[in-house]
Amino acid sequence: MELKTPPFFYTLPPMSTNYEAPSELRELEKILRQFTYANGYDMTEVFNDMLRYIIGFFTWEVKPIESWRYKKEDTIVFWNMLTQWLSIMDRQTIRKGWYDAFGDLYMALIGSTSRIKGFGQNFTPSDICELMAEITGTKNLTEAKENDGCMISDPTCGSGRTLLAAHIKHPKKYIVAEDIDKTCCMMTVCNFIIHGCRGEVIWHDSLNPDTYYGGWLVNEHLGKCGLPSVREIPKEESALWNFRQRRKQEAAIREVLKPDMEKQNNQLNKSKITI
């Protein structure tokens, strides 16, 4: 008797390691690829330099971009990347409310190659981000007052898309992003700028909060003059850093007072037993 394999036991084809950017990003992707390959550059470095160029454009303090290696004619290409990105974001944010162009570009240009090597990054799908924003802390955030010091934070922000979804739900809240990957931090900074998020992006190891490699304060003047801005900040200016330092001090004080509190509790328990 011949046994047939049930149809649900078919062998699935291997998953593709390539991620294709959405059609609306193809022109920007084309500019990046052509510029990189024509000049023999590394795609990761060009991608990072594009992010640094955009952040520099929105930095009010006029100063040369550190270690900028490109000639004038090459820098014009980065200007084209910036204007192309602004055009994309203008169209897509009107359609969708928020849009993470750089997250998709990263996965198409860099993440797919990294996955072949075994250490790629996959960012949370936009639908899942919106679901998380809908169900996470909604009541508390809605009831909180505008200037009560409440922060919305993501300790592994990636390109910042989960925070963008949260910003749409709670546009007046202070947004805090953290990541150990500098490229992710710079993508998040750009996303904060273009979406009008007021907050900060901290480049550090969130599993070791005492680390601090760098930080950016985004849109601090947006409520006053309506213009987007960004500037690098030391850890002493970070709201997140100061919050965690206060928590450490409070924990240290509790530890010092712990013996006295235990003694008082023991005496209280004895008095209850006597009664």
The first-to-last residue Cα distance is: 85 Å
- Please give the largest β-sheet: 5 strands, mixed
Fraction of residues in H or I helices: 40-55%
Count of beta strands:
5
Oligomer: single chain
Broad structural category = alpha/beta
Strand content: 5-15%
Shape summary: elongated
Strand order of the largest sheet: 1-2-3-4-5
Name the average pLDDT: 86
Sequence of secondary-structure elements: HHHHHHEHEHEEHEH
Domain tally = 2
> Poorly predicted ranges (pLDDT <50, ≥5 residues)?
1-16
Radius of gyration: 24 Å
Number of helices: 10
What do these coordinates show?
The model is unreliable at 1-16 (pLDDT under 50). The chain has helices spanning 26-39, 43-57, 72-96, 101-117, 126-135, 138-143, 161-169, 182-195, 222-225, 239-274; strands at residues 151-154, 174-179, 199-203, 214-218, 230-232. The protein starts with 25 loop residues before the first helix and ends with a helix. It folds into two domains: 23-117, no CATH class; 126-135 and 148-245, no CATH class. It has a five-stranded mixed beta sheet, with helices on one face. It has ten helices and five strands; from the N terminus they run ααααααβαβαββαβα. It is of the alpha/beta class. Helices cover 55% and strands 8% of the residues.
What key phrases describe this protein's structure?
275 residues, alpha/beta, five-stranded mixed beta sheet, 55% helix, elongated, disordered N terminus
Q: Layout of SSEs?
A:
Elements: H1 26-39, H2 43-57, H3 72-96, H4 101-117, H5 126-135, H6 138-143, E1 151-154, H7 161-169, E2 174-179, H8 182-195, E3 199-203, E4 214-218, H9 222-225, E5 230-232, H10 239-274
Parallel strand pairs: 1-2, 2-3
Antiparallel strand pairs: 3-4, 4-5
Helix pairs in contact: 1-3, 2-8, 5-7
